[in-house]
Specification:
Low-confidence stretches: 344-360, 734-738
Radius of gyration: 30 Å
Oligomer: single chain
Number of strands: 13
Length: 738
């Protein structure tokens, strides 16, 4: 693979104008396709095969008027008892009439007719039924809905439209651009050259542009959840900058070793590019592997992010060499350009020059070398302290609770949060997460006979506050009953209630009884994801062992890497639970209300961190193996690998942390938690696990780290990530051979 990429890098530099032109054409075409073909994103999370989803499908087929999105308008009078007055009733009636005549609304329910008035006569809830699902409600319809009750508010009343209809796509603003700005600063400090930093950033941004435009172009035929583009943008930016950084860093080193720009690019793409391809492949495999969980919205999220990572890899190994060709030696700081030029052979090329002959005496006084010597010297205390520290950080992990987000954790002041808080204030948390029971019989008589039985069972179920009268479909074969829990949507007691209701109504004969509603859907999704988590974790860990065994020709190195990955995941989960669920230091991340973690965060975090962890593992340990194979002792090889890779890996990790951390400033708690968890995970894995525990363990294992049974060594194919075959070919090449 290294030889193929070497030729690709040199070819891209030679035809740099064509390569740049082709990528710009791809960017423009993808942008036009996105502008013309972009479809809506989905804010709901469906789960085929669950009872709640079957109930929704049944409603859509037999009771379409009740299958659309619902809204709840919370009304608060200026004083207690005011709703009972003729004036108060008139205000509420006007709100009901205004809501009922909105475009896309089937009808609005008078709260006085259904008893949706608080005992103190100050609060009322107006139920609004839309004809279509929440994702099909237009922005104009949402705007009109949010403006209901403006006249009443002018009279001192408080009117707060809310409900699932207000769900939408998180807004991407200027705050996450801070992460990109920090990444640019890190690049400038790392390279000491505006040209190198700017070129690396430009390369990554072009890749992100192509990836995101292609994703939005496909959204017309593939249903994307609202978080899928955000995740794709996060990963596309982070890995795009990192992959370009790795190749540019190796190219600069090659220039300083006296190679011509063309040869330096070829060898950079052949060596660092091989690691980029492998690292990108692990991220793509891990994200695409989410499909085995068999959860459609998670599969789409994984494939969307995998697509942007794939584009980032392609851009890094093709467009980056072309841009480096335009830059020449200007990618180096001014003080080093003359040194590189003086070391270049007179004929302008050194394709036949052995790698070993090009390197000057190496300076091993840098921080990476000093840190590696310190860690290997005190390896046992370092390992013990590292394990103890990560273990303490992981302590909150067993308390992790998963749920889909609800309005109670939305940003303070947002329409959904205001409506939720007003409803809770007047009626209790249960009214914000009502359940729906669908009763479907073969005949109207069967349904009519089953409804009283179901109602009685529901009323006797613990934690049920109220059961609303049944609504019948036009043909009388389907009935819909509303159930109000005493507790909120994400409360553990509500989860227990869902199971209790399903158990109690399961014995009804002559009719199908199914429980659904946003709350029930959230519980079903969370439980299925929790069940899939151990299977996916086992898949990822097993995959990491096999891939690293293939790369490093070792048994202990892959096992060590997998255990380090598990430490990273456990500690990351622990910190995220402590902040977002338990509320410790929540103010630092701008979190208004702690609550359960979004149900797909753990499984998504495992997939992403796996790829990134393997990324740093390859860049650090591959150099250790290379030096060990070339005769250095195990300890010296460990120090050498850390010394050469520490600066680049540190910069790469800081860039990833900056990009992911930029999303913490968004108001949406789901995106905020994703950005926080990824930033923390990268920090732990890069600085604690890969750059501290790994060299300590490698020096402790010594030569045993590289042991592999002969039969297994013969069975495994040679992928040549480190470019050993390429080096041998270049060393043996005669001047006439190119």
């Amino acid at each position: 693979m290294a030889t193929l990429l070497y030729r690709l890098g040199r070819g891209a530099l030679r035809r740099r104008r064509l390569v740049v032109a082709l990528w710009l054409v791809v960017l423009v075409v993808a942008g036009l396709a996105a502008a013309t073909l972009r479809g809506p994103t989905a804010s709901n999370f469906t789960m085929p095969g669950t009872e709640s989803q079957r109930a929704l499908d049944l409603l859509a087929q037999q009771f379409p008027a009740a299958s659309g999105a619902t809204g709840t308008i919370a009304v608060k009078a200026p004083g207690d008892g005011q709703l009972a007055s003729p004036q108060g009733r008139g205000v509420v009636q006007e709100i009901v009439q205004q809501a009922a005549t909105l475009p896309g609304v089937v009808g609005a329910v008078d709260p006085f007719q259904v008893g949706a008035v608080s005992p103190n006569g100050r609060y009322a809830l107006v139920q609004v039924q839309f004809a279509t699902g929440a994702d099909e409600v237009t922005d104009e319809q949402k705007t009109a809905y949010e403006q209901v009750g403006a006249a009443a508010e002018a009279q001192g009343w408080q009117v707060a439209p809310g409900g699932e209809v207000l769900g939408g796509e998180p807004e991407i603003g200027s705050t996450e651009a801070l992460g990109v700005l920090v990444a640019a600063i890190v690049l400038i400090i790392t390279f000491g050259s505006l040209v190198a930093a700017g070129m690396t950033m430009l390369n990554a941004l072009i890749g992100v542009g192509v990836g995101m435009a292609g994703l939005f172009a496909l959204s017309s035929v593939v249903e994307l959840t609202s978080t899928a583009p955000i995740l794709a943008l996060m990963l596309g930016l982070a890995v795009g900058i990192d992959y370009s950084l790795f190749i540019t860093s190796r190219h600069r080193q090659n220039l300083l070793d006296g190679l011509s720009p063309e040869e330096a690019v070829g060898r950079a793409v052949g060596t660092a590019g091989s690691a980029v391809v492998f690292a990108g492949a692990t991220v793509v495999i891990a994200l695409a592997g989410l499909a085995v969980v068999d959860i459609p919205f998670l599969t789409v999220m994984g494939l969307a992010a995998a697509g942007t990572v794939t584009v980032a890899v392609l851009v890094a190994i093709t467009l980056q060499p072309a841009l480096l060709g335009f830059a020449g030696r200007r990618v180096l700081p001014r003080r080093l350009r003359s040194v590189a030029a003086d070391g270049t052979p007179a004929n302008g090329t050194d394709a036949d020059r052995p790698v070993a002959d090009t390197a000057p005496t190496e300076d091993r006084s840098g921080f990476g070398f000093r840190w590696a010597r310190l860690v290997t010297r005190f390896r046992v205390p370092v390992i013990l302290v590292g394990l103890l520290g990560l273990g303490l950080l992981a302590l909150p992990t067993p308390d992790m609770r998963l749920a889909l987000p609800d309005a109670s954790t939305a940003a303070v002041g947002s329409p959904a949060r205001v409506a939720n808080d007003l409803t809770t204030e007047g009626f209790g948390a249960g009214f914000t997460g009502r359940l729906a029971v669908v009763v479907a019989g073969d005949t109207p008589q069967a349904t009519s006979a089953a409804v009283p039985q179901v109602t009685a069972l529901l009323q006797r179920t613990e934690n049920v506050l109220a059961v609303a009268p049944a609504q019948l479909s036009p043909d009388g074969r389907t009935a819909l009953l509303g159930v109000v829990p005493k507790t909120g949507p994400t409360d553990e007691a509500t989860e227990t209630l869902v199971h209790d209701i399903r158990a109690s109504v399961g014995g009804i004969r002559d009719a199908d009884v199914l429980l659904t509603g946003v709350t029930a859907i959230g519980i079903d999704v969370s439980e299925k994801l929790s069940d899939a988590l151990p299977v996916y974790l086992l898949l990822v860990v097993g995959l990491s062992v096999l891939l690293l065994m293939l790369v490093f020709r070792s048994l202990l190195v892959p096992i060590k890497a997998a255990l380090g990955f598990l430490l990273t995941v456990a500690a990351t989960f622990g910190i995220t639970v402590a902040v977002f669920q338990q509320g410790h230091l929540a103010d630092l991340v701008g979190l208004d209300t702690p609550g359960p973690l979004i149900s797909f965060l753990p499984i998504l975090l495992i997939g992403i961190l796996f790829g990134l962890a393997m990324d740093y593992e390859v860049f650090l340990v591959s150099r250790m193996r290379e030096d060990f194979v070339h005769g250095e002792s195990a300890r010296e090889a460990t120090i050498s690998g850390m010394g050469h890779g520490a600066r680049v890996v540190t910069a790469a990790a800081l860039i990833m942390i900056s990009v992911f951390g930029g999303f913490v400033f968004l108001e949406d708690p789901v995106i905020k938690s994703m950005g926080f968890a990824l930033a923390v995970g990268v920090a732990i894995d890069a600085f604690v696990v890969r750059m501290t525990i790994v060299p300590a363990v490698m020096s402790l294992l010594g030569d045993r780290a590289w042991w592999l049974p002969r039969w297994l060594n013969r069975a495994l194919p040679n992928v040549d990530i480190e470019g050993e075959g390429l080096r041998a070919k270049l060393t043996d090449r005669t001047p006439a051979g190119v």
